Amino acid sequence: MKRIVLISVLFYITSAAHSQKTVAWNSYLQQNGLYYSSLNMTMAGAGIGAGLGITFHENLLAQADLNIYWINGNAFSAQFSAGYKKKGTWSPALLVNTSVLWGSGTEILLDDGSRPADIVNSVGLEIAPLRFENEKGYVSALELGYGIGRYQGKYIEITILKTGIKF
Amino acid sequence: MKIKSLYFLIGLGLLFSCTKEAPIIENKESILSFSGSIEKSGVYQWVEQLYDIHINDTPLSNEGYPPGELFPSGHLTRSAVVGAVAGALSDMGYKADTIQLGNEPHIAYNVVAEQKGALFPEEVVLVACHLDAFYGGADDNTSAVAAMLEIARAARSFSFARTIRFAAFDLEELGSVGSTRYIEAGYASDVSCAIVMDLIGYSSAEPDSQKDIFGVTTPDTGDFIFVVGNRNSSDAIQSIISLDHTASISKSVGVIAPGDGTYFMSSVFMRSDHGLMWYKGIPAIFFTDGANYRNPNYHKISDKPETLNKDFLGNNTKLVAAAVALLAEIQP
Amino acid sequence: MTDKKRNSLTKGCLFLLIVCILSASAKNSYSQNIPAERRLEYSAGFGMIIYQSGYGLNNSFGIEAHAGKYIKGPVKWQAGLRLGVNPVLPEAFCRLLLTEKFGRWKPSIGLENGISKRAYFKSDSNLLKETREAMDRSAGIFYLSSHSELLAFQINPRLEISILEIDFGTHYRSFGKTLRLQTTLLRLNTSF
Q1: 3-class secondary-structure state, position C129
Q2: What is the CATH number of domain B33-327?
Q3: Tens digits of per-residue pLDDT, C118-174?
Q4: What is the pLDDT of residue A18?
Q5: Are B123 and B162 in contact (CB under 8 A)?
Q6: From CA B330, how far away is CA B290, in angstroms rounded?
Q7: Which domain CATH number covers A31?
Q8: Cβ contacts (< 8 Å) between B260 and chain C: which residues?
Q9: pLDDT tens-digit profile of B65-119?
Q10: If we measure between CA atoms, which residue out of B128, B138, B139, B324 comes closest to residue B225?
Q11: Is residue C127 within 8 angstroms of chain B, CB to CB?
Q12: Residue C74: closest CA among chain A residues belongs to which residue?
């Protein structure tokens, strides 16, 4: 059993070391808008976000960002995404994401007078059709996202522009 | 079904956010006793009387206010109703004051009457509505004036810890003129909480009779009353909805606008005399049936008493009465 | 600010704007030897500013001019002046941008901080006039804005053109309650 564990650990370390060569980090800024509408909570706004991303093996990517929106109070979101992108200069991507939304919004009380939770979770899909990448960074314009969330909620999200720099 | 299951799973996955329960209501029996003393038939009689007064009154000059599609400024009446409301309150035993504010051609005549509180007379619960109307204005806003008069009548038989001030504001349709002048002149400095009613009589059981309000999802069927507040009045909103849920007084939906309610998207909920109160930090609760987001007769000559739902109006009056009893702390 | 001071400030800003525009159009052969990333850039443009708060809304056309330079890699700073037309009020701003280049397409995104006294609302309409005046919340003069240049293109090594830039922001003192939307309809940029 001990040998199996040791071999597994060594295998993981060597494969991780190998994968270090195909891992690229980037940080990005984005200007975006969000509209989350549900039976009990409406959060919406346009604003700005910043995040950290990672690319594996040239095709796989993951990213995490924090955003602030203002139009219906000040709402915040933390979004975690992972997905697939095409290799090359034109590198459109398709991502699956999960988000946590909190902050201000218009609340519809539950029947018993309780207020809805002030943190809303959601899952969704995002497409980045106008994504372009070079050795220094990338740009993505007009990303569209759609998802579902708490209280039978649905959201649409648009990222007008996202610019990332690799490091 | 699969989508609903997915929603359910998402909801289950939340471990770190909770709903905030409504505060516990004390003295529920006394509150419901006051609410139960409201006579529904009396409310509707007031609607018919005040509607007739509006229809037969001479419209105000609309100088400086050009008409628009939902703003028939050439058909705004109030003069005769001012006297009728003041007279009605006097007949109930109140000392009714008509406070004139502003200059010609649009002097605002606000009618105000008080019932002093037994324990905290310096703390005032304001019960307000606007008395001006386009055409006959059965829903907007005779329904609310009628409700206020019926609550004022019932209140004479009860005692409250705080002072209840009944106010019929003038010229709301020209941009909350009467209430703005009232607040700016300092008359609201002793108000601890306000209840404002604007359109509380129209309901429909038809599907899709209720439109979403400026992007805020609402129930599709327009058979409920909105009870709207902001951060300052959120506890009161919760208590009212909780009370309605347990006692089945009416059918209400509670809405809490973000922060002080003055953000762009939520500013649609500011559209009445409570708007400036929210801005100034006065806790205010707004009762409405949704106006043009539900009532097809909004600001039209077709806004007549027969288009209102008598039971709905009566139940909403009972709910407002319960809210008054809650906030003014009715004495057992 | 008194009318006299405002007029002087306006004239000063106009003069500075004209100097920037003339400088941007002047040739300087020495600049040919400076690498692109070390050149000072000058821009001039015009657009629209819309402000909203409570019941108040105002909008105005405006002109702007700014200078900027790359700090490191794709990061650059910009600082400039903007002059709204109705009412005639100046603004000052600075930005930090991330810029990438793909062929001639050169989009940028960043944060803008600025000073503006445009967040007051005066309307000729009588409807809600007294209530608007009663809502005399001072939004303060400092604002934060997100800035994006989606349709920016390099025409030649010294000339760039950008259309439909979007800035969306708010004032710090009434954060989220006073909204600012600014679009730069057309901007020309040169460097030397």
Answers
A1: helix
A2: 3.40.630.10
A3: 877 777 788 888 998 888 777 889 999 999 999 999 999 889 999 999 999 999 998
A4: 45
A5: yes
A6: 29
A7: 2.40.160.20
A8: 177
A9: 999 989 999 999 999 999 999 999 999 999 999 999 998 889 999 999 999 999 9
A10: B139
A11: yes
A12: A165
Give the integer Cα–Cα distance in Å for B72 and B108.
19
Residues present in chain A in total:
167
The continuous run of DSSP H or E covering A5 comes out as helix A2-20
The first and second tokens of residue C173, run together, are 């003192």
Within a domain: residue C150?
yes
d(CA B288, CA B202): 9
Contact B297, B147 (CB under 8 A): no
DSSP state of A115: B
Residue A151 belongs to domain spanning:
23-166
Nearest to B130 by CA among B288, B251, B318: B288
Domain assignment of residue A108, yes or no: yes
Q: How many residues does chain C have?
A: 192
Q: Which of B28, B6, B165, B181 is nearest to B106 (CA)?
A: B181
Task: Establish if A80 belongs to a structural domain.
Answer: yes
Name which of A29, A104, A132 is nearest C109 (Cβ-Cβ).
Answer: A29
Nearest CA in chain B to A42: B216
Interface check for B29 against chain C (CB to CB < 8 A): the answer is no
Reduced 3-state DSSP string for chain B: CHHHHHHHHHHHCCCCCCCECCCCCCCHHHHHHHHHCCCHHHHHHHHHHHHHHHHHCCCCCCCCCCCECCECHHHEECHHHHHHHHHHHHHCCCCCEEEEECCCCCCEEEEEEEECCCCEEEEEEEEEEECCEECCCHHHHHHHHHHHHHHHHHHCCCCECEEEEEEEECCHHHCCHHHHHHHHCCCCCCEEEEEEECCCCCCCCCCCCCCCECCECCCCCCCCEEEEECHHHHHHHHHHHHHHHHHCCCCEEEEECCCCCCCCHHHHHHCCCCHHHHHHCCCEEEEECCHHHCCCCCCCCCCCHHHCCHHHHHHHHHHHHHHHHHHCCECC
Segment holding A62, helix H or strand E: strand A60-71
CB contact under 8 A, A149 and B239: no
- Chains with 3 or more CB pairs under 8 A to chain B: A, C
CATH at C61: 2.40.160.20
Q: Does residue C87 belong to any structural domain of this protein?
A: yes
- Give a yes or no: residue C144 inside a domain: yes
ipTM confidence: 0.89
What residue numbers bound the domain in which C104 lies?
A: 3-26+40-191
In a domain, A32, yes or no: yes
Q: Tokens 């050169």 identify what position?
A: C106
What confidence tens digit (pLDDT) does each residue in C28-60 have?
444 445 555 668 999 999 999 998 888 888 888
Amino acid identity of B244?
A: D
- The answer to whether the CB atoms of A139 and C102 lie below 8 A apart is yes
Task: Give a three-class secondary structure readout of C90-117.
Answer: EEEEEEEEEECCECCECCEEEEEEEEEC
